[in-house]
């Protein structure tokens, strides 16, 4: 049986994606576009600091194809499903659409 290898465990990929921003300041950790630090202490970062506010939403009566179109337009892979009073009913992600055969 072939052993499955996670991307995060691939040392060559880690070296490519996560380079220190400078040799003198290695405490800043991984860098993103433009040299901005993307490193966060995952043991101390609250969800509120990284979550998306004002999420894109879908109505429960929306067609699956419409939700897919919305995801592609906004380059996202999940939508929150809300009722007319914006109460959360559930979440729809790309995996749900793949499983349903929409994609």
Number of domains: 2
Tell me, what's the shape? globular
| DSSP E strands, number | 3
Helical content stands at 10-25%
Put simply, the count of helices is 3
Q: How would you spell out the order of helices and strands?
A: HEHEEH
The percent range for strand residues is 5-15%
Reported for the largest beta sheet, the result is:
3 strands, mixed
CATH H level of the largest domain: which superfamily? Answer: CBS-domain
Low-confidence stretches: 4-8, 12-29
How large is the radius of gyration? 19 Å
**End-to-end C-alpha gap:** 29 Å
Mean pLDDT: 76
CATH topology-level fold name of the largest domain: CBS-domain
Determine the structural class based on helices, strands and strand pairing.
alpha+beta
Strand order of the largest sheet: 1-2-3
Which CATH first-tier class of the largest domain would you pick?
Answer: Alpha Beta
CATH architecture of the largest domain: Roll
Descriptive overview:
The protein has two domains: 9-51, no CATH class; 52-103, CBS-domain (Roll), CATH 3.10.580. Strands 1-2-3 form a three-stranded mixed sheet. By secondary structure, it is α+β, with helices and mostly antiparallel strands. It contains three helices and three strands; from the N terminus they run H-E-H-E-E-H. Strand 1, helix 2 and strand 2 form a beta-alpha-beta unit.
Question: Quick gist of this model?
Answer:
With 103 residues, this protein is an alpha+beta fold. 24% of the residues lie in helices and 13% in strands.
């Amino acid at each position: 049986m072939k052993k499955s290898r996670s991307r995060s465990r691939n040392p060559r990929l880690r070296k490519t994606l996560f380079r220190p921003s400078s040799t003198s300041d290695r405490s800043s950790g991984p860098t993103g576009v433009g040299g901005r630090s993307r490193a966060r202490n995952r043991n101390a970062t609250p969800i509120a600091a990284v979550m998306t506010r004002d999420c894109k939403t879908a109505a429960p009566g929306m067609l699956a194809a419409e939700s897919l179109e919305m995801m592609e337009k906004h380059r996202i892979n999940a939508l929150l499903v809300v009722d007319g009073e914006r109460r959360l009913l559930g979440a729809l992600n790309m995996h749900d659409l793949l499983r349903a055969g929409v994609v």
